[in-house]
Specification:
Elements: H1 4-18, H2 29-32, H3 38-61, H4 67-113, H5 115-128, H6 133-144, H7 147-158, H8 168-185, H9 198-223, H10 228-255
Length: 258
């Protein structure tokens, strides 16, 4: 049996298919506010870690030739950034869950205190989807008879909120933290093979990081929607631009008289 959310989404699709002359003025809110996925959390952490460490390494390239400083700076950033990103993922997810629970309680109380107003809001939303006349009244009445479906309907389509499971905060923190470690380590890999040749390490790091960013963006497009080349190049351009900012800062600071 379909869940209440799937039932509501089917109603929305039916409205689009059975009322082709009507302009659908409301988007499917539940789809637009989907729960965070493994892919989105991985991209968030890996991109942030990679760009952050790459910027630091390029900044150090313009300021010093001591390879030990490169490793110390990169590893320090890796540790701090991974903990910070994991903590942010956890607290932000907890905050979203608290908001959802608070609004759920408020909406449930309103359904008891002012049912006529809530019913009118349901009718208005269905009307914006193209339902009218007897069909509009029947489907509104059908939802009103199912308090769970009506509550989920109002949370998704009136308040624009998606449910957040209790374990989701821990999952998000773990995925984002681990992917930040992964991304942070990527720009450092070329320096492991160039000895004390800082210039060669930097060039290899930029190429390697740019390729990694491209494949992350391309994989995102392949997994979701969009052009692989456009998404990959966009991701690489954003990351390398941020790295360039680190280089310029290091260059100008390094050029300052002591």
């Amino acid at each position: 049996m379909n869940s209440a959310r799937e039932y509501l989404q089917n109603i929305k699709r039916n409205a689009e298919n059975t009322s082709p002359t009507k302009t659908v003025r409301a988007k499917v809110k539940g789809e637009r506010h989907a729960r965070p996925t493994l892919l989105s959390n991985f991209i968030l952490g890996s991109q942030d870690g990679l760009v952050n460490v790459l910027g630091i390494l390029l900044g150090l390239t313009a300021a010093t030739t001591d390879i030990r400083i490169f490793f110390v700076g990169a590893l320090a950033a890796l540790g701090a950034e991974s903990i910070s990103m994991g903590a942010v993922a956890y607290t932000s997810t907890v905050a979203r869950r608290r908001v959802y629970l608070k609004e759920t309680n408020r909406e449930r109380q309103e359904m008891k205190d002012v049912p006529e107003i809530e019913l009118e809001e349901v009718r208005h939303i269905f009307g914006s989807w193209g339902y009218e006349g007897k069909e509009l009244e029947d489907i509104t009445e059908s939802i009103a008879k199912n308090p769970k479906a009506m509550l989920e309907f109002m949370m998704s389509y009136e308040l624009d909120l998606a449910p957040v499971d209790k374990p989701e905060a821990r999952r998000s923190a773990l995925i984002v933290g681990a992917s930040t470690v992964f991304g942070s380590f990527l720009p450092l890999i070329p320096y492991l093979f160039v000895g004390r040749n800082i210039l060669a390490g930097t060039e290899a790091s930029v190429i390697f990081s740019g390729a990694a960013l491209f494949f992350i963006g391309a994989y995102e497009a392949k997994t979701t929607v969009g052009s692989l080349w456009r998404s990959g190049l966009q991701m690489a351009a954003i990351g390398l631009t941020a790295g360039l900012a680190g280089f310029l800062i290091g260059h100008f600071i390094g050029a300052l008289p002591v």
